[in-house]
Amino acid sequence: MSQPATLRSWVASANGHADFPLQNLPLGVFSLPGSAPRSGVAIGEQIFDLEAALELGLFEGQAKAAVEATRGGQLNAFFELGSAARVALRARLLELLGESSSLRGKIEAQGAKLLPLAADCQLHLPARIGDYTDFYVGIEHAQNVGKLFRPDNPLLPNYKYVPIGYHGRASTVRPSGSEVRRPKGQTLPAGQSEPSFGPCARLDYELELGIWIGRGNAMGESIAIGDAAEHIAGFCLLNDWSARDIQAWEYQPLGPFLSKSFITSVSPWVVTAEALEPFRQAQPARPQGDPQPLPYLFDTRDQQGGAFDIELEVLLLTEAMREQNLPAQRLTLSNTRHMYWTVAQLVAHHSVNGCQLQAGDLFGSGTLSGPEAGQFGSLLEITEGGKKPVELATGEVRKFLEDGDEIILRARCRREGFASIGFGECRGKIVPAR
Amino acid sequence: MSQPATLRSWVASANGHADFPLQNLPLGVFSLPGSAPRSGVAIGEQIFDLEAALELGLFEGQAKAAVEATRGGQLNAFFELGSAARVALRARLLELLGESSSLRGKIEAQGAKLLPLAADCQLHLPARIGDYTDFYVGIEHAQNVGKLFRPDNPLLPNYKYVPIGYHGRASTVRPSGSEVRRPKGQTLPAGQSEPSFGPCARLDYELELGIWIGRGNAMGESIAIGDAAEHIAGFCLLNDWSARDIQAWEYQPLGPFLSKSFITSVSPWVVTAEALEPFRQAQPARPQGDPQPLPYLFDTRDQQGGAFDIELEVLLLTEAMREQNLPAQRLTLSNTRHMYWTVAQLVAHHSVNGCQLQAGDLFGSGTLSGPEAGQFGSLLEITEGGKKPVELATGEVRKFLEDGDEIILRARCRREGFASIGFGECRGKIVPAR
């Protein structure tokens, strides 16, 4: 399925595009001013309007059924169709938008009706999210955070057996660009025995990979790890905004709650497994002494190619940077290679108890930090809990995020002989507490 | 709004009915064989078909708008309307079904079309659940469970300040009568350092009050405690089935996950605040030395009348009892008085960070145990973690639930001068692991 770098589109902005070359073709939901949300595909600086293309009769067979399932401003029904429909749609899009497309003229004649500029378009959540689950599979992050609380024993005994996860809040997942209102809540000030109430003073980001669930399973049935791919619709970037002071006070014994539920931001484009195919790799060998996964979490093919090499980046743009016309400053450069468990292992684990997954459910990977400075996926790790502020190019310092700060997540896949693939941005700007 | 015991219905089975006298009028969604789910009201042994009554022209004004919002097999739109619509509907139902109804003849002439026997009807979830949140406000339960893990320090320091809660799984909430498939998962056998995989061996129930959320709030805005009533649509019974062995191994550091997400059962009828009005009471005084609630959790009216006196009961029916025609045996008799926080406090807390609540969201109270033997809301507490098995009338013993066991939750409100109000049952029978 993977396409070489030489493949080109007649949509000029797609060729060499950092995020959305012809090889990517991520799906999403967009709207033009005054019209209802509809499905589209990012191509260079434009969006190919799937519903308009359907009306033009550009699809037939399985690809047509796939596009029909994307209608209504939510991709859930498309996700539910599974991989065959997705692959058929991709094949047809490669024909339609490829350099030698016989339909180029017909499409170009429709102009902005079929290919509006992405800049004009508002992007929406791609699906109605039934349930959102946040995992904790970035082992470097788990170690970094564990060290802050338990210096001698950063990883708990279950970590290398159980893909740790917890239920998140689905109602507050929002697409990139949505404002991030600083939450209020209870915190226990240092040295005090009684909590205070007020705006969060330790607001943080978390760099995560998001996973959109495809076909669901019946309640009471499990998804075997070898079948997991059929149940994964695609990928995005996810910022699990975190109020560290609220979290520290509330999270025992049942886990994070209001410290996370005020907003979770995702990049709006669903990048498919097909687009990411060239960037698959073997799951990194477990360090000596680590246990092997239990049988329900072990699949040879998954071990050999279930991991991804996706570069992940976090940038900070402060009010001062905007005023001085400075570019956003990088805080983190990490990679999905730091996942201790593969995405297939997450699907198998989540459903092993018979829990029903549904098309449009969202998983977060957990924060994906690397082991070294510059690779930490949250300010909690970068500043060691606020003890070592970051110095910015403007001369400003940050322990945690301030009002007006904007966090930008990006992802990039690179490999010799293949076009680079990106995810688009996941942005969020902090606005003051109410 | 509350109606005295003397109020009678011309529906004969309603008068003196333990659960559904005319004073209750809970809403739900039911279906007859071969027809689509629709809204109805429980009255004695029958269901008043709201959609059929709407077609007959029995409603007008606000009550009509309320019934229109119940159409489509989900009460979400009705919940979103808030209390005025609900109160108008109740007033009209009291007229229609009251002893001196001028429309009795018209309704009776329709026979089973308007009043099918509940026994013929399948009951469904009353709403599409966006998010499900489980709280932990049964302080006796928190103390009993805390003692098992931390004998000297059963309650964590945050317990009396924070209404502790966590996100649950919405996709596996099911109505009473749905089978409970024993989950499989990882557990750490006593004395071992490596986990095993297999069927849960410590399957348990948890007796909870369920709360259906009414009108939602915009993201970023909080619901003031004084406004919480407008955001509560009604109440049900909730069994938070728990796999104790899976829970013990997985829950650190992010809370319960697969140990709870295999199923959560609810009673299907939505009992309204109006029906429960006579059973409101002052929030029990906090023991000397306990802190006062923070201002966002404090409201004088809520302190004076925000708690409920609802008797809660758990019964166990084993295979042997069924074979011997023995009645189900009571395991627990408790009361909602054991909630350390009121329902209004839960709503205010959940939204204080700007988290968006939506009509049809579901809250669980947490297990509502009393302080004494016979009042414990889970087998974990009754058997002290399996150390002291319960002896049953059949001569059987139980540490935890076995395949074939059925758990039945019931609730009853009693007060001199008022009709008794019930919730109907919340049942679930264990079927073997796959």
Provide a descriptive summary of the structure in words.
2 copies of one chain form a homodimer. Chain A is α+β, with helices and mostly antiparallel strands and 434 residues long. Chain A folds into 2 domains: 12-124, SH3 type barrels (Roll); 132-431, Alpha-Beta Complex (Fumarylacetoacetate hydrolase, domain 2). Chain A contains 12 helices and 25 strands. Chain A has helices at residues 50-55, 61-68, 76-81, 83-97, 104-110, 139-149, 244-250, 273-276, 300-305, 319-323, 343-351, 379-382; strands at residues 27-31, 38-43, 46-49, 122-124, 132-135, 165-167, 173-175, 180-181, 184-187, 196-199, 203-204, 207-213, 232-239, 242-243, 264-266, 280-281, 307-308, 311-317, 329-335, 362-364, 390-391, 397-398, 406-415, 418-422, 426-431. The interface between A and B is large, with 64 and 64 residues.
Please name the defining characteristics of this protein.
Fumarylacetoacetate hydrolase, domain 2; 2 domains; 25 strands; homodimer; alpha+beta; 434 residues; hydrolase (chains A, B); SH3 type barrels; six-stranded mixed beta sheet; 12 helices
What does the secondary structure layout of this molecule look like, with pairings?
2 copies of one chain form a homodimer.
Chain A: E1 27-31, E2 38-43, E3 46-49, H1 50-55, H2 61-68, H3 76-81, H4 83-97, H5 104-110, E4 122-124, E5 132-135, H6 139-149, E6 165-167, E7 173-175, E8 180-181, E9 184-187, E10 196-199, E11 203-204, E12 207-213, E13 232-239, E14 242-243, H7 244-250, E15 264-266, H8 273-276, E16 280-281, H9 300-305, E17 307-308, E18 311-317, H10 319-323, E19 329-335, H11 343-351, E20 362-364, H12 379-382, E21 390-391, E22 397-398, E23 406-415, E24 418-422, E25 426-431
Parallel strand pairs in A: 5-20, 7-15, 8-25
Antiparallel strand pairs in A: 1-2, 1-4, 2-3, 5-6, 9-10, 11-14, 12-13, 12-20, 13-15, 16-17, 18-19, 18-23, 21-22, 23-24, 23-25
Helix pairs in contact in A: 2-4
Binding site for Ca(2+) (chains A, B): 134, 206, 208, 240
Protein name (chains A, B): fumarylacetoacetase
Domain Fumarylacetoacetase-like C-terminal (chains A, B): 140-430
